[in-house]
Design a protein that fits this description.
With about 160 residues, the chain is an alpha+beta fold. Helix content is about 50%, strand content about 15%. The protein contains 7 helices and 4 strands; from the N terminus they run αααβααβααββ. It is globular, with a radius of gyration of 22 Å. The N and C termini lie far apart (about 80 Å). About 30% of the residues are buried. Keywords: Signal. Pfam families: CAP (PF00188).
Length: about 160
């Protein structure tokens, strides 16, 4: 019986291998999706391109703002809400200070449901209020957090700040 199973498997696999095909189990949605750190870096890059086109300087990445942005996105996922006020009542300035950002916080953009960096940046740029925050030439730093919920839906947060002095 084992010989029949092996021969059947070889009959299927040999032609596939000859054509350079690989038979594999389908990947689940989470493993097939890009890592959120990659998406976050893409948002920074696309935001900086938009800023340069608008006559602003590129933003520097702040690890403290990244921590604040990721924490807010995770909080929205964990507590199943969408908003600028945290589940504990915090505002973005409080969250950025708690994450160790000691400079001046300038603004926050949030979004959910966009599947990729290009879509979420386009959405923010098409919204006058979000666009104003992104293209505020006084901001010098950025942090982005993208967190998936159990269904793979992305919750996005962009934090902006400026170095004093």
């Amino acid at each position: 019986m084992r010989t029949i199973v092996r021969r059947s498997a070889l009959a299927v696999l040999t032609p596939a291998a000859a054509l350079g095909l690989t038979l594999a189990a389908p990947a689940d949605a989470a493993s097939a999706a890009p890592r959120t750190s990659t998406l976050e870096a893409q948002v920074v890059s696309l935001t900086n391109k938009a800023r340069v086109r608008a006559g602003c300087r590129k933003l520097s990445v702040s690890h403290a703002l990244i921590r604040a942005a990721e924490a807010h996105s995770a909080d929205m996922v964990r507590h199943d809400y969408f908003g600028h006020t945290g589940a504990n009542g915090s505002r973005f300035t409080q969250r950025t200070r708690r994450a160790g950002f000691t400079e001046r916080a300038m603004g926050e953009n949030i979004a959910w449901g966009y599947r990729d960096a290009k879509g979420v940046v386009r959405g923010w740029l098409n919204s006058p209020g979000h666009r104003r925050i992104m293209l505020n030439c006084n901001s010098t730093m950025i942090g982005v957090g993208a967190v998936r919920d159990a269904d793979g839906v992305l919750y996005w947060t962009q934090e902006f700040g400026t170095a004093t002095g």
